Amino acid sequence: MKKKILVANRGEIAIRLIRAIQELDHEAVAVYETPDQRSRHIRIANEAVLLGDGPRCDYLNIDKIIKAAKRSGCCAIHPGYGFLAENPFFAKACETSGLIFIGPSSKTIYDLGNKVIARKIMADAGIPMVPGTENLPQGREGIEKALAFAAQYKYPLMLKATSGGGGRGIRLVESDAQMKAEIPVARAEALAAFNDDSVYLEKVVINPKHVEVQILADQFGHTVHLGTRDCSIQRRNQKLIEIAPSMIQNKELLDEICKTAVKAAKAANYVNAGTVEFLIDHNFNYYFMEINTRVQVEHTVTEMITGIDIVRNQIQLAFGNPLPFSQEDVQIRGHAIEVRINAEDPKNNFMPEGGKKVSVYRSTGGFGVRLDGFVYQGYIIPEVYDSLLVKLTVHGFTWTETVSRLHRCLENFVIAGPKTTIPFYKNIVQDKDFISGSFDTSYLEKHPHLFLYDEDASEAGKLAKLIAEIHYRKRNPFAI
Ligand code: ADP
Ligand code: ADP
Ligand code: MG
């Protein structure tokens, strides 16, 4: 039976969700705030509801979104990623108003969104993890506990916001003096960002690889994994490039991590799609980091190597269907790489380029190429949202083929107007350490030459200049 599903998100993920909903022969209801009124997700949805002027606050307004769903006759809400996706109160509000929340239960989101509770559940299930503290007590007692932990486990340590996410609320601490100074600051920041000032400590894994496992689970006790992804290439603890499967040449280790991910999901009574994140050190020890209770930005690479539509399955699982395949049916084929093309200036500490107009947008295509985006020529990038413009995902039979496909696509792709991460990625695909799979989370720091490129000499740079010149001439027809 045709159902109506509200998409509580924007940008590329809203479009990704709308496509899956329509392919299931359901109808998608988009929501938006005024700065997004020219956004493409509104046009491709079956209906759209203006939430308010925003910016950002309406996409986060639980009450308005539930009302929009009820008024438009929706039976379910897909939260995407970011915004309310990992907010247990939102999932709870859906549950109590009779709407299906497309994701795990509010209880699971609550438990796993709290890094300390999540670590406790995983420790009880025997999942390996780095040593860490519980929530640090307030005031002097907290600082004393932190110093005692440092004396036992030695610096460097990671001071983390217990409710943190999206790479925010994590800081490296290297001395007692820094610890004393940082705890109050970290608390204040965590309170402002996550509405919870709890912080705790973890031992640092030096230059680890970030490897994560996609899992899918139904209500009937079946949990499968869809293999690994490497997300080590990061800036400010946020991912830029993701690869599936992991390039680690140790099949037993990767198999074990996948099995551990299934065990971790079962320990949390997990239903729907989720991601179990691990860190791997240079001696091939692996440590549980967290479970993300939502669809990830980088889910595309897993879809490309398995042929399994994760969003479609999320919807079907939330409607109470059993998983339509078993672990043995999941076959990994080839390699996939996703690059997040952001409106950011890598040379200027990845400063966002919001507010600029996309004067030229010439995308790429071809065999094994997938684009998940939402911008178009003439689109003005709102300053108030994140900087992701389009995800370029390539799939190839061999790693070498995949890298050269990505290189070719990046050469074809022209976005003029805002600065983007494209020229930076062009350097990465030609870097020998990237090509040989020798990278960990310190990759950007250790490869400063990646930041050397001449933007003005690129096709995008030349076009942007030309267009600026044409606009100038139009406004000043008698200029010499
Ligand atoms: P992924 O693991 O899928 O790459 P990220 O951790 O990069 O996801 O986060 C995905 C999106 O969700 C980003 O836009 C990020 O800013 C946002 N996000 C994640 N967690 C939070 C949070 N707790 N508060 C605000 N935004 C968040
Ligand atoms: P978030 O919820 O913001 O995604 P995570 O706990 O998943 O936070 O950590 C994000 C990133 O921070 C990791 O991918 C890794 O690069 C780094 N990181 C987190 N914890 C540690 C640790 N204990 N040792 C080393 N790096 C870490
Ligand atoms: Mg994480």
Features:
480 residues; alpha+beta; Rossmann fold; Dna Ligase, domain 1; D-amino Acid Aminotransferase, Chain A, domain 1; 3 domains; 8-stranded antiparallel sheet; 5-stranded parallel sheet; 16 helices; binds adenosine-5'-diphosphate; binds magnesium ion
Alpha-carbon distance between the two ends: 66 Å
Q: Would you tell me the overall average pLDDT?
A: 97
Please tell me the CATH architecture of the largest domain by its name.
2-Layer Sandwich
Superfamily (CATH H level) name of the largest domain: ATP-grasp fold, B domain
Q: Tell me the CATH topology of the largest domain.
A: D-amino Acid Aminotransferase, Chain A, domain 1
Quantity of strands, as a count: 20
Extract low-pLDDT stretches.
none
Structural class: alpha+beta
Tally of separate helices? 16
Strand order of the largest sheet: 13-12-9-10-11-14-19-18
Helix content: 25-40%
Q: Main sheet?
A: 8 strands, antiparallel
Provide the number of structural domains.
3
Oligomer: single chain
The bound ligands are: adenosine-5'-diphosphate, magnesium ion
Give the class-level CATH name of the largest domain.
Alpha Beta
Globular, elongated, flat, extended or rod-shaped: what is the shape? Answer: globular
What share of the residues does DSSP label as strand, in percent?
Answer: 15-25%
